[in-house]
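ok so heres the complex, two chains, lmk if somethin looks off
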Amino acid sequence: MARNEFELITRYFENQAVNRKDVTLSIGDDCALLEVPAGCHLAVSTDSLVAGTHFLADADPALVAHKALASNISDLAAMGATPAWVSLALTMPEPDETWLSEFCRGFFALAEYYNIELIGGDTTKGPLSLTLTVQGFIPHGQALTRRGAKAGDWIYVTGNLGDSAAGLAVILGQENGLSSSLAETLVQRHYISQPRVLAGQALRGIASAALDISDGLISDLGHILKQSQVGAEIDVTKLPLSPELLQFAGHNVEQAQKLALTSGEEYELCFTVPEHNRGALDTALAHAGVKVTCIGQLVPALGVTLKNSDVELDWQLTGWDHFAHQNN
Amino acid sequence: MARNEFELITRYFENQAVNRKDVTLSIGDDCALLEVPAGCHLAVSTDSLVAGTHFLADADPALVAHKALASNISDLAAMGATPAWVSLALTMPEPDETWLSEFCRGFFALAEYYNIELIGGDTTKGPLSLTLTVQGFIPHGQALTRRGAKAGDWIYVTGNLGDSAAGLAVILGQENGLSSSLAETLVQRHYISQPRVLAGQALRGIASAALDISDGLISDLGHILKQSQVGAEIDVTKLPLSPELLQFAGHNVEQAQKLALTSGEEYELCFTVPEHNRGALDTALAHAGVKVTCIGQLVPALGVTLKNSDVELDWQLTGWDHFAHQNN
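and the predicted structre for the whole thing:
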């Protein structure tokens, strides 16, 4: 008997360690049946990853799985939500058991870490791609949106910026002069982000606005500025750069800073904090164990001004735009 | 400035007539924020449609949109759920405004009919495909699953069966001898199903099991049989066949019956009803305004037996399996 899509789904996706009490009915019926806690909003986000656009078709399936799920969880983190469930739509040219098995290994490792249950999805034939919808909870009135920022608020980012773009350059073979250990580290940084779930939760009631950096800091910060109707001044000397990024840039600091401003798929959080909450921020983030860096301040005049300490810069930068890229 | 994915999303997907009170935050942030009614389960289903597998790349975008959304709503209908929200992940080779505009016309017409709000999604570059996640509500304990059927229960289907397969044959150019009006009618039947939302809701508390027919009656009924651990006897003379299907089959009734048993993407409901609920069924469905037909009965012995009135048939049939098809 021919192996069909049902068998594929059954074999690979029904065996998972996570078994949440709020999942009344999981994979195997027309719908999943789920329970949202009283007093909470449901937070929902959807992301697609397409071979040739977001990853190479021959990329390690476990890394692709991690990247897909981590980027989606990052959207929950950016709202301050607690992850709960994920649906997975997987399209592949042929049922490839080796690929599926490796993919599931990466997928379920991360899902288990965050106690996320796979509640359903679809498996279809076609060019390799995957779409995930993650869902989580957040108590009423505590979500971090993009529209609450005010002039005077301070701008922060978690982690370091720029490594994802450097890793992508290595993956695409655009950088051949690096040591193999440096190259490998940067590739891992591109694929293996850590969604800032604890940081997002810690920012509830403290940050005035937040989002995750998927299309580049400058591009994404623009969403907060537009929705909150403010501008920003960023001091590029404050941008958090990893030693590996500086090495990648041949210690050309300006080049590293430009990468940090535009690198997409970082999945770090960018958030704003009013002056009177800065003390609370330090306390809250000590518990989350995440490095945060203040890189600038919001101002009344719209637009973004880049400064090197007090000197204004006229750098021309563009964001990370999948429709403009040809990554394969 | 180059047109990027944000502009695309903004322009085409933020203008919708539906504006639900349970959507606190919709498109434009990292997540949508939603409110599930107290006392209700959240029902979630995901479906992908891929060009070349589920539709032809040059198919009318409005019909593709209808088919995608209707098939997904049909999963909610099969649980007895009330539709509420949808997320749309759209992958396309280039931003094509003509295509997007027609797609949105079909998509929002159907979404509006069922009062479904588009709450988010993703737009990416790649081979044409779309993945939808629909969500709806169902009061606790009232969901129609696949596992409650018992031997002795009667098997029903809504509407007619077989037209979708006949329409697909026309689309693929496998039938050239038909009148153009017949051909056109069958193509419409393939693309434009009506999700049985009211019927599904009417079946709460009456049906012992239910699902929608996406992979062919025989294949899908098998899920109920497997999960409920029963078998089925189907009288093929009871299968509801449209006049157009009989015309398509050159009035070869056996051929039409075989199509009815295997035709995928019908999006009619197949459900089972205990003897003592048959009276309630008639009353409930009178309000839903949907034709239903009793086509057989569940039996203790596993497997499916096909009969022509009392004569057992040895037809060999297989279900609709996307991995086995090469539709392009």
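quick notes: Chain B has ten helices and 13 strands. thats all i got rn
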